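Q: Convert this sequence to structure tokens.
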Amino acid sequence: MTPKQIRVMVLNDMEKLDRTLFRLEQGFELQFRLGPTLQGKHVHVYTNYPAEGELFERHKFHALDWINPTGRQDDSDKFCTLDLKISGSYQYYFGHGDKEKSGGGYIVVDPVLRVGADNHILPLDCISIQTYLSKCLGPLDEWLDRLRVTKEAGYNMIHFTPLQTLGESRSCYSLADQLELNPDFSPPGQAYNWTDVGNLVEKMKNEWNMLCITDVVYNHTAANSKWIEKHPECGYNLVNSPHLKPAWVLDRALWHVTCAIADGKYKDRGLPALIEDHQHLHAIRGVLWQDVFPKIKLWEFFQVKVEPAVDQFRALLQSGAKPDRSKTNGKQQLKIIQDPQYRRFGNTVDMDSALETFVPHGSSPGAIEDCCNWLRRRLDELNNEQFHEIKHHQEQATNCIDGTVSYERLADHGPKLGPVTRKHPLVTRYFTFPFKEATLEQDLELMNQPEKSCHFLAHNGWVMADDPLRNFAEPGSNVYIRRELICWGDSVKLRYGNGPEDCPYLWAHMQKYTEITAKHFVGVRLDNCHSTPLHVAETMLAAARAVRPNLYVIAELFTGSELIDNVFVNRLGITSLIREAMSAGDSHEEGRLVYRYGGEPVGAFLQPSLRPLVPSIAHAMFLDVTHDNECPIQIRSVYDSLPSSAIVSMACCATGSTRGYDELVPHQISVVSEERFYSKWNPQAKPSSPGEVNLQSGIIAGKLAINRLHQELAAKGFNQVFVDQVDEDIVAVTRHCPSTHQSVVAVCRTAFKNPKHHRYADEVPPMCIPGKIEEVVLEARTVERQAGSYKKDERSINGMPEYTVEIKEHIQLKDSKVVRQAGVTSRGRSEYVQEIVFEQLTPGSIIAFRVSLDPKSQELVGVLRNHLIQFNPLYKAGSLSDPNTPDILKSTLTQIMSKMTLADMNILLFRCDEEEKEEGGGCYNIPGWTALKYGGLQGLLSVMADIRPKNDLGHPFCDNLRQGDWMIDYVSNRLMSRGGTLAEVGQWFQAMFTYLKHIPRYLIPCYFDAILVGAYTTALDATFKQMSSFVQNGSSFVKLLALGSVQMCGVGRVPALPPLSPALTDVPYRVNEITKQKEQCCVSLAAGLPHFSAGIFRCWGRDTFIALRGLMLVTGRHLEARNIILAFAGTLRHGLIPNLLGEGVGARFNCRDAVWWWLQCIQDYCTMVPNGNDILQCPVSRMYPTDDSKPLTPGTVDQLLYEVIHEAMERHMQGIEFRERNAGPQIDRNMRDEGFNIVAKVNPDTGFVYGGNRFNCGTWMDKMGESEKARNKGIPATPRDGSAVEIVGLCKSTLRWLVELHKQGLFPYNTVTIHKDGKQLSVSYEEWDRKIQGNFEKMFYVSHDPNDPNEKHPELVHKRGIYKDSYGASSPWCDYQLRPNFTIAMVVAPELFTVERAWEALNVTEEKLLGPLGMKTLDPDDMVYCGVYDNSLDNDNYNLARGFNYHQGPEWLWPIGYFLRAKIYFAKKLGKDTYDKTVYLVKNALSRHYVHMERSSWKGLPELTNENGQFCPFSCETQAWSLAAVLEVLHDL
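A:
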């Protein structure tokens, strides 16, 4: 079963996509998902796609329901869905909160066309259409004889121009009655109707497999339509559109100029009736400016009568009137009101604006008169401005008249109309005038008689470079007065208004017309689409689809912009846009159009069935010529008809032509003046017999072959296209089928210039065709024959009898006349190429080869596809079973991978360059590009994820695959060298690659991708099966973060952890390759990639235990977590856990916080793992049982874990004070001597742990100054000595837990015993716990009370309502800096905080510190804040040099986890409303992490970013604690 096609539309706030085209097919599912800007918000998605069982109504929207498959944490997988079963155009929009619409767009669902008696589907790309001018078909009973030409030439669709009664101009598109069948189709004594036409169309569908479409014309009707006489309100007339009056006056005046010229009245002024030169044009200009414009005074329609206005103003002033301020808003600006009836001097003055603008200095008559004079002057100025504006319009009108006359009467390429007469006026009239001829003065009087002036209707036409979304006949447009309309004098423009209520008759009439058309035809062509009002076409097409749901809609747009094209396609649901090959100036451009209008590149990747919805270009109907194009024989040459047609039909889209092209009619068949009939089909006809054609006529035989080929290629899935410009005239188009790997290559030699007059080269370059040529599908060329020369027939439309096509089909290469020889060459083991040398590829010839892979390659591809079916059923097509399947491929990859551990997965999927180098390898490097991020599959997949959706086959990665097997071998060899199950996976790859290496190189990228994607997804499934149910049932985001656990947790060549006690069970072992001894191989946790991944810098106590809960406990890796906890426990010394582990032997005990994070993890282990308290009884092998002992071997001194815990607590209470071993530059080249002195103690009064000094940094903010220049070397940027807030919180959390454990009988100690001044003292854990609880808010909270008695340094307070970062620092102001560390204490020891104070502090933190991905490490209001970290910068800036500001502003990611978890915890205490808002904040914040991870080639989250989330090049690209902290937030949700 083929998988369902699902497309995902990601919604982003404020994203309006009305001009973006999204095309979908019926049967697809569309999912709407939330982008990062919307996650967490209450978003509602609305659509007018009809709900199940309802009918489509364009204005009826309904909300879609959200589905959350994991029903959990975050919005990354939440979606709402549409099952697309009905074709048409549909709108969607979405909103959130009080914004109803904050984005939206359209989707267009393609129709499904069915044909034949069996109603089989005709795919859109199979369409071959031919256009007929209906009036040239003759009586209906003769149609089949004429239409048979289309069937015999291999077309499967006919487009008829309108079949309705035509207007008096006889233009095919000027319809006198939209509801009546053209009476010309009924011979005497017959009266055919629409049913007869419908029966004929149905007969052709069933018997000929031929579909029919016709035009709909909504924009105009014939000027002589009877119904428009009865309903003049349906057009633009002087009653309903008085703004056209000035244009009408000009139009009448020009008509009277025509009459005067025709009657010879201007002869004496150098203007005869026959206009022959530019002198005459100049004379026309003279007449316009001297006689016409001064006489008709168009400016008066836009002016104010000054004196009456001044009189009215004077009267108001005298009466003491004041302006109405609600109308003027106090603005002093005189407003003129345009007369809606457009009478001469009809404009009036807005008196409120006059009173506001002209204020008299007093109430005396003199003052009032002054004021009136100011108004008079201003009105004169405004009238003058109008005069000049009209003058500009008249200048443009003069230029347009000049241009029209010049084209129609002088130009060589124009119609040369001859003398000016009433039949051929000087310029086409813009308005109908159904009255007798009279004088201009008499005509103008009619303007004010509504019963007459309603019949002066504006003609339609088109305007060069006009905005197609604007109606040029509506107010605001000056097209008619400026004479910019290229006018169709036979048609009246229809005026629909805004809806049916504005013109009921017209809407009803046109809807009926639409329904008749949709009843009988499968589709419509929207004539003059770009200037049909969109809302009209929308309503009419909705009516048509109500009659015929799978309506096929085509249109030709002349908007000049793809974005505006998309507006029409979207709103109207246009299926195919007409594109024409005649727009190409040369063969190169013609080939480019083929590539642009359809298909994927050859060798494209197989896309997943669930993938993002990407914008597309409109489906093309690519025609060699349209019925309104000029004749190609006149523009190019007769010899080009066949090759250009062949190029078009090789396009992977709908294609077609116009009747007459195939018969080589050497002129354009005019839609207006052609009255002859098309020829009939007669197989026996002679070339010269008039009115008949057959396969020997013109290029019909060639057209039949290429139409058949076009339809076969589309039907059989040849959807990959390659266009090769062989030389300036030769275009080779390849169509390739991705399942069978068959190709058809058509080589076409165009002849844009006639070979009789143009010298074409005799030599044609040879061509190399990869694969084995099975046959020549066809070879054809246009040749001359003895059949007399072309004479235009009087009665039927005839072509050039002197040309025909010489064609051979389905022949062997050796029988070809076009090809001289075809040598077989083999490039390497998998490149089988045939070199073609042409003998007779003359201009105007075509040859098409059917090509398959060589038999060996074909077999291997089939077998490879067979092995890929386990990943995707789509590979069944073209697959073959292999009798000699290697053993390793007899099991599925799922079975092999089920034996792998998560440590194996770390090698299979990840490992950065530093990790690979430790094993003696490295990540694969693509020459001339870059190295991959990982040695494992993720390194390759990250690159392929970018290449695949774009089919970027030119990428250096794909080049590398095509050029050699290096990358392929790297993948399998890297795994086979590892042994165990990894080696089996390596063998599986090697076996699959054996097939891959023997297929043509151009196919290797797509199959390599298929193998890797299959293996990768299988590996992910196997990985998640070994993780917790939280991960297995989690969202995509949860799974992505959980992969971070696999990324960070691995076993190197040298184990990074010190060995565990031999007495411990379930410890993994392996045999050391060098010593051949058995050794432990526990997983260790890297701090970050790439900088902290290998060697001595891989493992850090603090990083390990900040990350361990999220990456190991939440993901269910309990045993590995236990081993890490116990391994570090074995290194305890001085009561501390090492910062840098150095395998224990090279450990540095220079941090005060790692031990507390370690204790927190043991607590988390006990509470989260089933029977977790058992860890307390596990043996710990002490490496340093005393502070001064040498490192001991495992098992020498074992203690139970709870004893080690108690020792750590007791040592702190006793007070830790020592100097680091080997102190000096050998262990730290920057540290000052005092910095090597380590202190960690407990304050007996408060219970707070404190320590450190100003020359060392014992917490995670551990940047040591390194710059001599800036004089910060050896000075920590953030010593955080005294009591750091998070350490106090972690200590409190541990005490609370130990007290509880003791009560449960799981921990034997309830007191710590110390020696002070020779005395033994005991402090109970409960008392210690109480002291911290009692003192924490007193000492750490910065209250709003300026006289707070607990505040030691009120002068240093600069933010209130927050918690201090430390207490008792050697530089007291450091205590008061706002940093994110107190949020850690909130999560581990929330009992220390008052809910309201905590909430206020969190809000300050959110406002000041929250960044896009991380938390600012320092308040931006602080004077040393700097948010950009640059470790390479060495200057004299103390606060910046050598990255001194590492923790003084840059935004670190892991604290955001604690900030969000604290928000969630305290929000729950404050009620549902607060909690819901917090969940939104959390989801919204985390959505940015999800997007970052999805886009990151490392598939991780960075250590830090610069300010406002900007990339920091000095950061680790993926950091363990960043991933862990975010995963923990999702776990809390």
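The chain has a mean pLDDT of 94.
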